[in-house]
Amino acid sequence: MIASLRAVVARSLRLPRRRQLLGLASGFAAAWLASGVASYAASPEDDAPAAAAVAPPAPIDLRRYPNLRPFKSRPPLPALVVPLHVVEPRRDVRASEWASPYCTDWSDGVERCVRSSALGKPICVPAEPPESERHPVACSNADQNVLNQVCFRYAVVNPGRLSSLFVQVNWTWAARGWRAEYGEDDGIGSRDNLVTTYLRRKGVTGPIAEKRTYYCFQTYEKPIDWRKISPGAPPY
């Protein structure tokens, strides 16, 4: 900008006095505008991505969903009546856009989101190391208490392992209240079975990644015969 101003002054000195003043004014204005445009073009903001990263969604407010009360003489179950599409949203989105009520660690291969509990807001960062392409979101860890509250039947699936399980949450009445117990464990019988094979067998139709993942199949929306699965509970 200094060189531009010097050139303006030098040219103006060769003109009559009135034209010198007019020339200086217009020359200073032109030089200032040129400098501003150049500094804007070199601004670090231009090095930013064309689209800003999507902020992680806020935790789902589970207080708006009602508790189950299958037994009149007992307090309500800790279980909440939450629609399946809320508990298990589609997974063909960015990890930073996925809103799960129970997951605490999930990734799409490019982004990874973590939080200390399902009630906290997640922090999303680039996956380390990043994979070559984005895959459907896989939930590798969950807040067990919240998962029990919102999901009646779910799976924990590990690719290439025998520890993949299909779990049903059975609420049992004890002296101090309801407690979650588990039944209907259904492990994958072969290390060669894929996550996709197992989840398709359970009726999952959405996108699936060949990664360790939690997946909810049934919430507490459908009628459940609690007299069969809640030992110690009184008649209705």
Polypeptide structure, described:
25% of the residues lie in helices and 19% in strands. With 236 residues, the protein is of the alpha+beta class. The chain folds into two domains: 2-47; 62-229, no CATH class. Helix 1 (2-12) runs antiparallel to helix 2 (17-41). The chain is globular, with a radius of gyration of 31 Å.
The number of helical segments is: 6
Rg of Cα set: 31 Å
Gross morphology is: globular
Strand content: 15-25%
Instruction: Note the main sheet.
Output: 4 strands, antiparallel
Query: Strand-and-helix sequence, N→C?
Result: HHHEEEEHEEEHEH
User: Could you name the ranges where pLDDT drops below 50 across 5 or more consecutive residues?
Assistant: 1-6, 8-52
What's the helix and strand layout?
Layout: H1 2-12, H2 17-41, H3 84-87, E1 103-107, E2 111-114, E3 123-126, E4 138-142, H4 144-150, E5 153-157, E6 165-174, E7 177-183, H5 195-201, E8 213-218, H6 226-229
Antiparallel strand pairs: 1-2, 1-4, 2-3, 5-6, 5-8, 6-7
Helix pairs in contact: 1-2
